[in-house]
Amino acid sequence: xxxxxxxxxxxxxxxxxxxxxxxxxxxxxxxxxxxxxxxxxxxxxxxxxxxxxxxxxxxxxxxxxxxxxxxxxxxxxxxxxxxxxxxxxxxxxxxxxxxxxxxxxxxxxxxxxxxxxxxxxxxxxxxxxxxxxxxxxxxxxxxxxxxxxxxxxxxxxxxxxxxxxxxxxxxxxxxxxxxxxxxxxxxxxxxxxxxxxxxxxxxxxxxxxxxxxxxxxxxxxxxxxxxxxxxxxxxxxxxxxxxxxxxxxxxxxxxxxxxxxxxxxxxxxxxxxxxxxxxxxxxxxxxxxxxxxxxxxxxxxxxxxxxxxxxxxxxxxxxxxxxxxxxxxxxxxxxxxxxxxxxxxxxxxxxxxxxxxxxxxxxxxxxxxxxxxxxxxxxxxxxxxxxxxxxxxxxxxxxxxxxxxxxxxxxxxxxxxxxxxxxxxxxxxxxxxxxxxxxxxxxxxxxxxxxxxxxxxxxxxxxxxxxxxxxxxxxxxxxxxxxxxxxxxxxxxxxxxxxxxxxxxxxxxxxxxxxxxxxxxxxxxxxxxxxxxxxxxxxxxxxxxxxxxxxxxxxxxxxxxxxxxxxxxxxxxxxxxxxxxxxxxxxxxxxxxxxxxxxxxxxx
Amino acid sequence: xxxxxxxxxxxxxxxxxxxxxxxxxxxxxxxxxxxxxxxxxxxxxxxxxxxxxxxxxxxxxxxxxxxxxxxxxxxxxxxxxxxxxxxxxxxxxxxxxxxxxxxxxxxxxxxxxxxxxxxxxxxxxxxxxxxxxxxxxxxxxxxxxxxxxxx
Lengths: 604, 151
Hints:
By secondary structure, chain A is an all-alpha fold. Chain A is built from 10 helices and no strands. In chain A, 89% of the residues lie in helices and 0% in strands. Chain B is globular. Chain B has one domain: CATH 2.40.50.180. The chains are: A mainly alpha, B mainly beta. At the A-B interface, helix 8 and helix 9 of A face strand 3 and strand 7 of B.
């Protein structure tokens, strides 16, 4: 039942119960205090009654005492005092009477006492006082008074009065005792009530606190334990709903939250596992590709990131396979091309000598001609400058040009003549060569003959000794002949090569001369237009002529440098060989490339 | 005694003139298939077939180069049976005849090829004698002159 209450109601109920108990206790205590106060009032009242009784007794005693003093002295001052006492005494009795109206017994007793007092005053006191006044200052008056019957009569009255007073006093004392006991009883009851009520209140409060604490702390502890278990990793932990208060609602909501967290984690783990499987599949394909096997197929598809990655990888592998196929084909093509290049390099090497020779000669000659032509050009420029200042001597210049043309023609014909003579020289040298061959053979035969002659002389013994000397001399002559012949042969070979080089150089030279003639004619034609005004060309054309002559000298030098050009040709051939070697290396590299690419498996 | 000096490699060797029949120029030789290495071939000497031994190959060097001063030396080879055969020797760099004093000849002191005889010193170094009678080992002799090798 308590479990169905909310925490607010529980707190209200608990503290309300404690308040009710305290209120009850206060009411009881208030009642007890009221009763105790009443008992105390009664006590005081009794004490006041006693006091009034004592006052009456005292007044009575004072009245007696004053009366006797008057009796003895007869002093009127004393009489006044007696009169005062006589007024006071009834007042005291009246006060007492008022006090004891609630007690009929006492009231009757006081009424009686009042009567007795009135009686005493009337019967005893008044006559004696009157007598004493009569007596006045008479001697023995006191004795007279003492002799009066009233005096003797008065004693029993006083005794009766005191007796009544004692009775009243005893009555009041008994009442006091009874009321004191009653007050003490009330006090004990009060103490007992306070002690028992306080204890009950404390016990009840503790009980309520315990129940409240238990009702609040049990679900809280339960919840804290479950939170701790979830924090430690137990996803399935749930809080027990032991009450339907706010904590119960909290537990229920917490359970719902934990359940949703667990569901979310399971969904997340499932998606993570799926992702890992896809990544593993991709990784296997990529690992195979890294080891050279490109035949792996990427099966991961989809619109998410990993699917797009898989599709991208598949495209990349397709492109890579295509690329490697192309590279393999290219390697084969490179090898084929390298082989072809090697073959053509061989051909180039074979034709290299010729080409190099020709090109070097052309270069050399062209340089010479170019320098001469530049000189010529310079001179011509000078001539042009001079021509600006003069308009005469045109005909002379033209004549000079014609003479120069003629000279060049002569030079061409002279060159042709030199060529013819050189050809004749080469032919002669060939003839000498055949003669030398014959001489070499003869010398060789002579050598053998001398050896055989020495052998025969040795066999002839002493008789052949002289012949042996002759044979030795013959052999020496034969040897000298061989050496000389070899020298001649070498010289002849050099001469032949020099002559053939000269022929070729002269051919080139005459070609250049012809071209120069053409150029000069062109220049002449061009200059003819302006030459009408040119008069001072003759000295410049002399310079031109000198340049041409130096060109002839340069052409002579061409012939001399032909031998050196051979070396350059050799270098060209060597560089062609180096090219061939490089092509071989290219072939090796191409086959290496093919081998390297072949390690990749690309066929699916 | 007089020696015909030739070379095997860089070293000089001498053939005694007494054993030489004739010095011939280098001529075309007919190859003999399956013949031993030392046999350079057969030469045609006025119609007769004469075997030619390459001295350079016999001496363990490379075959004799066919140069201007490479000659064929025709020697008399005395077979053990007493008959004398004509034998051609292909000699490289035949430089000529040299006279060597008998006193300057002394044994080489090294056991080498069987045809090597004593050596003679001169200003240009040593000349080692070649003895044609010891030139052919028994099997080569039997191969070249079979009739003589039969008992």
